[in-house]
Design brief:
The model has no long low-confidence stretch (mean pLDDT 83). The protein is rod-shaped and about 100 Å long. Strands 1-2-3-4 form a four-stranded antiparallel sheet. It has two helices and four strands. Helices cover 42% and strands 28% of the residues.
């Protein structure tokens, strides 16, 4: 009678330890996944900042008057198509009437009423960074950064 009671106790203890082990492994796996997703989001933020600075450099170095157009978009990709970041930058120009017709302008006409000597006074830079890896997460990471830059 005593040996049978010890066997039941041993099975019960093994089940409790197995349950604790499964919960621990589940917690470790979810922590690793959340850490990876946090890293991916921070990378997206850094890419957005970098592409914003690239857009500012492109705007300031581009001769709109001579070419009669503007830098409207800057697109890029980092990594592969299945495991990487895609970056899309849209630039809208705010300013006087001297902005070429091919330049993106905001829809609100009131914001185009300022500018000195019909020059472009500012630019709105929208950067969208998307990370899509279906092996890690079914939902892509999308980060948007909007910057108003005086030029």
């Amino acid at each position: 009678m005593r040996k049978a009671f010890s066997m039941v106790t041993a099975i019960f203890v093994i089940l409790i330890l197995a349950t604790i082990a499964i919960l621990s492994l589940n917690m470790v796996a979810s922590t690793a996944q959340s850490t990876t997703m946090q890293y991916r989001k921070e990378q997206a933020q850094l890419y957005a900042k970098s592409y914003t600075e690239l857009a500012i450099m492109a705007i300031t170095e581009y001769d709109r008057a001579t070419n009669n157009n503007c830098v409207n978009n800057i697109n890029g990709a980092v990594g592969t198509a299945t495991d990487g970041y895609s970056v899309s930058t849209a630039i809208s120009y705010i300013g006087g009437t001297g902005v070429p017709a091919t330049c993106n302008k905001p829809a609100d006409p009131d914001v185009t009423s300022f500018g000195v000597n019909n020059t472009v006074a500012a630019a709105i830079i929208d950067v969208y960074v998307t990370y899509n890896d279906t092996a890690v997460s079914p939902n892509p990471i999308v980060y948007h950064r909007r910057t108003l830059q005086k030029i």
